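Journal club prep, notes for RB
We'll compare a predicted complex against what the paper describes. Inputs for the pyridoxal-5'-phosphate case:
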Amino acid sequence: MENYNMEKLNFERPIIRKINTGISNKFGMKTEFEPIKHIDNVGVKGLAAEYGSPVFVLSEKTMRRTFNDAKRAFDTRYPKVQFSWSYKTNYLNAVCNVFHSEGSWAEVVSRFEYDKAIANGVPGNKIIFNGPDKTDDDLNTAIKNDSFIHIDHFDELYKLIELAPKHHKKPKVAIRVNMDTGIYPMWDRFGFNYENGEAWEAISKIIISNKLEFTGLHTHIGTFILSASAYAIAASKLAELAVRIKLKFHKDISYIDMGGGFASSNTLKGSYLMGIDTSPSFDDYAEAITTALINSDIDPDNMPLLILETGRALIDDAGSLIGSVVANKKLSDGRKATIMDFGVNLLFTSFWYDHKITPAQDFSHHSETTTLYGPLCMNIDQIRESISLPPLKRGDLVVVSKVGAYNMTQWMQFIMMRPKVVLIDKKGEVHIIRHNETREFVESLEEVPLHLKKAKDVNGNKHKHNGKPVEIDSKN
Ligand SMILES: *Cc1c(COP(=O)(O)O)cnc(C)c1O
């Protein structure tokens, strides 16, 4: 046991561990057993002291580096590439603006996100409007702003044909296509199906209507897709549609949008191999998609713009959650459990991922298996069912890595309020990009009807409801 700072040693109860023979450790568990004391050279302890625990920390450096990795992978393989930031993956404005400053357009799936993109200064003609629920007002706004409207179903298609003439211009539309790429279950609830001819029918109806400008083809085959070849299949099918459009309507489409869905290097629950070893790289995805397009029969002089709506793979690695230990306890069957100050309220992705969780201070080389729970009063609030960690005591800090995607949009205000989010910029300066919620903030949307307010006002007068004084609970 090492003890450099001469403090009293913490008692660690002796444990008996079965020695595993064989190759149980071939993935270098060592990385999990080096403390993470810094994020981009900023001390974790200091971050927690200044901004509280838990706190989300985003690295601008990692975001930009990851984006440029992805961009390079595609730019070196295809002549015209455009990224479009998927707002729902993380729509904190600071995050969106990092990607916009790198040249990304905005990809939105609701009016809320659409208005956010406009407020972030994204020109209307650089916004892609996806999603199954666009109101007439949403469609009119998108038409006015020259945004790309990705049609999800026939009702939306007919609605657009109806709305278009009032605008004296042709709304720019694409269709979302779903298809069999060998990934199951198929996401066939969005868009028009390729195999049964529905997509072709939608395309023909749009072009023949002569009221809409058919700009492109879109697909989004799913999320955390571990097979690059699924994208090759998807790209070939969209390319076939493009070729068929050229044959029948003598029209070149302007873009093919391959959606998002690239995996990050997180480890999926129950997977034997670590994510870092199994997730395809940007180069793998880029190779699959661009090869399929280049090998297709699309006119080489009129290759469509290739749009990518990558979300998760661009932001996951850039996010960390610093949290601390609330308590250790023993479950009825003798297993160890550790309660943390963050739970599934902040880490929605712990339903899918075995997050990498690392102590932020020095520790002994002993480790034991524990279950990590969050602080919520509900049974499903479990961060890791079983994780091997050195003994941690109340107040010890941990860093949960790769939490940048979806957690800051799917988090819930249940029992606890949401904590601060900070961004470390390229110079190592720390900026609050979202304040922690307060009771006043949460309650600012509430109204209490008069008869449910306290029975007496500040002057001691009784409130009346239906002519009778309001009764109050004496405990109030
Ligand atoms: C969610 C979504 C994305 C981003 O998906 P990731 O898995 O985060 O890359 C892209 N396009 C559409 C239409 C989406 O719904």
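Talking point for the session: The first helix runs from residue 44 to 51.
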